[in-house]
User: What shape does this take?
Amino acid sequence: MTDPNKIPIPASTTVLVRDGENGLEVLLARRNTKLFFAGGAWVFPGGRIDPEDHPGDVVTDDDDPRMLEAARHASVREAAEETGAVIDIDSLVWLSHWTPPMEAPKRFSTWFFMAPAPEHIGALEADGGEIHELAWMCPGDAMRRRNEGDIELIPPTFITLALLEHFPTAHDALEHYRNFPPEHFVTKFAAVDGSVVAMYEEDAGYNSGDASIPGERHRLWMGDGDWRYERSRWPGRTLNG
Assistant: This one.
């Protein structure tokens, strides 16, 4: 890879969960509309992994265990900087890792962690720089609001919300992912009948890049209308479970 702009930047994000009146809620943060990457979108708090996040020497290999440790430190730091949330690093549950396609204008190699919301939740507030607003949302409501044009989401956020939508409580979600290995999402874009599709491993068309091939599905439909996450095999449960 010779283009430095295409080398993924190590990053980390935190999915804070709590129990609300209508079930599990996640903390979403609206990014400054002037930002180049995901400006105006609602995302989970997070950002780049800085040199000081590394407990020792700075490493660049995603598969190095020390990089995972750096990601955990970055997740705690970014949550504090962007929301004021003080998170116990030992409470972090590694949820997933995301690698965008080469055609993405800016590429981040991102670790997603989940953690219970801190008890003193009332102290949370947006930093006013990169983050302009914070809100607790039920995953299903956030996806519905995106499809109604009320808010903007990016694919990793939408899919993470889809994965969490089926858990009735924060405890259930945390316990589930403590007992299942993190998923690795390496995105491939394709088109079917004019609709953009983001495909992931397990999808029948993933290796060939042909989204029209019949078979198992693991994809996000991203047409002009509703986004829809389609998956034949869900981690730890049946499709209807």
